[in-house]
Design a protein that fits this description.
Layout lengths: L1 E4 L4 H14 L9 E7 L1 H14 L5 E8 L5 H4 L3 E7 L8 E8 L6 H5 L9 E4 L19 E4 L7 H10 L5 E3 H4 L2 H13 L3 E9 L4 H14 L3 E5 L5 E8 L2 E6 L5 E5 L6 E4 L5 H9 L6 H9 L5 E2 L19 H11 L5 E2 L5
Parallel strand pairs: 2-3, 2-6, 3-5, 6-7, 7-8, 9-10, 10-15
Antiparallel strand pairs: 1-4, 4-5, 9-11, 9-16, 11-12, 12-13, 13-14
Helix pairs in contact: 2-9, 8-10
């Protein structure tokens, strides 16, 4: 069921929600949280589709805040709120309200959203694109216990990660971090199966994918080792290599569905490691509402500490024309030993 409201108010929207629930025969509310999506008209459809799919696991009231651009000074000075209320099958397993803001009300979106929040329920704010530099200081972000961004959608993902590290507040998270959950699980399990001391690591993936940097930062922060970032054709993350005292541990995914795990003194094995869609990533982030300390530690490790493949170590001379075999990949192993990196044991990966 859809209810369109033009030039409306928050109280009228609340009344329409009650009337809509009664009309479809569900007068009571069984939702567990309020999900606020802040986006533009271009990305609203995809974001709402992902939220509806995630609501099967987390029934929620979804508020989609769409800030419309006014073309003339007269329109920008006029405040206006249009809404579309969806209940029943139109809204997944919860309720959906599309809020289109015009004029001066754009700068006061929190005053529109606040009366529509579910009472005594947690609030999650998600920016699919154009996230603020400091989500916790944003007027809408200040209403939430959990704030979700996506560095992958940024024009410069590396700068986005630097900004996230500088402004991190407990409760912040990023979908680029959720994308590497299966990789972190596989690598931690591999170290559990093969007790060893890890000296260095290499992460390989497509160029503009911040999940590669986050995986490298996680390895560096948990194992206290030098990490090299290598660019590949993708898609996404393609490989992670750990150099240990017992051999090289490799998790290689040349395609987007199946990976190969290679461990010393063990046969190679195929593992499922498919790329997940936005709905699955969002559902994962909605499972926990407490601060993610591991994500915070990875951010604070610093993306600038990752080495680029082919970059010489500070204590080693760069390759010369007379030494064509001294490539960046060949330098990584001895450089890690000469740098005096303190290797960590496998338990640190957890």
């Amino acid at each position: 069921m859809k209810i369109d409201l033009t030039e409306t108010t928050s109280s009228k929207i609340n009344k329409a929600l009650v009337e809509g629930r009664r009309a479809v025969g569900t007068p009571t509310s069984g939702m567990v949280l309020t999900l606020v999506i802040v986006t533009d008209e271009e990305n609203a459809y995809d974001a709402l589709k992902a939220a509806n799919e995630a609501s099967r696991e987390h029934p929620s009231r979804t508020l989609v805040v769409i800030k419309r651009v006014s073309r003339s000074p007269r329109d920008r000075a006029k405040a206006r709120l249009d809404a579309e209320v969806r209940v029943g099958t139109e809204a997944g397993t919860g309720e959906t309200v599309l809020l289109r803001l015009y004029g001066e009300v754009i700068d006061h979106a929190q005053s529109v959203v606040l009366p529509l929040l579910l009472p005594d329920a947690p609030v999650v704010v998600w920016w699919p694109v154009n996230a603020p530099l400091n989500p916790a200081k944003d007027p809408l972000g200040a209403l939430a216990q959990r704030r979700v961004t996506d560095a992958y959608a940024a024009e410069d993902p590396i700068q986005e990660l630097l900004a996230r590290a500088e402004t991190y507040t407990p409760g912040d998270t990023d979908l680029a971090w959720a994308r590497i959950t299966p990789w972190r699980s596989m690598l931690a399990a591999a170290l559990d199966q093969a007790p060893c001391t890890v000296a260095s690591a290499e992460v390989e993936g497509e160029e503009f994918n911040p999940s590669c940097e986050l995986l490298g930062m996680w390895l560096g922060s948990r194992l206290d080792i030098p990490v090299t970032r290598k660019v590949s054709a993708g898609p996404g993350l393609t490989a992670a290599r750990l150099e240990s005292d017992s051999g090289t541990i490799v998790l290689d995914r040349p395609e987007a569905t199946l990976a190969t795990l290679c461990m010393p003194n063990q046969p190679d094995r195929a593992v499922a490691l498919k790329r997940r869609d936005t709905a699955e990533l969002l559902a994962e982030e909605l499972r926990r509402l407490d601060p993610d300390d591991i994500y915070a530690a990875a951010l604070k490790y610093g993306v600038d500490r990752l080495r680029t493949a082919g970059e010489p170590s500070p204590d080693r001379e760069p390759a010369t024309d007379g030494d064509p075999g001294a490539s960046g990949d060949a330098q990584d192993k001895p450089a890690a030993k000469k740098a005096g990196a303190k290797p960590a044991k496998k338990a640190a990966a957890k």
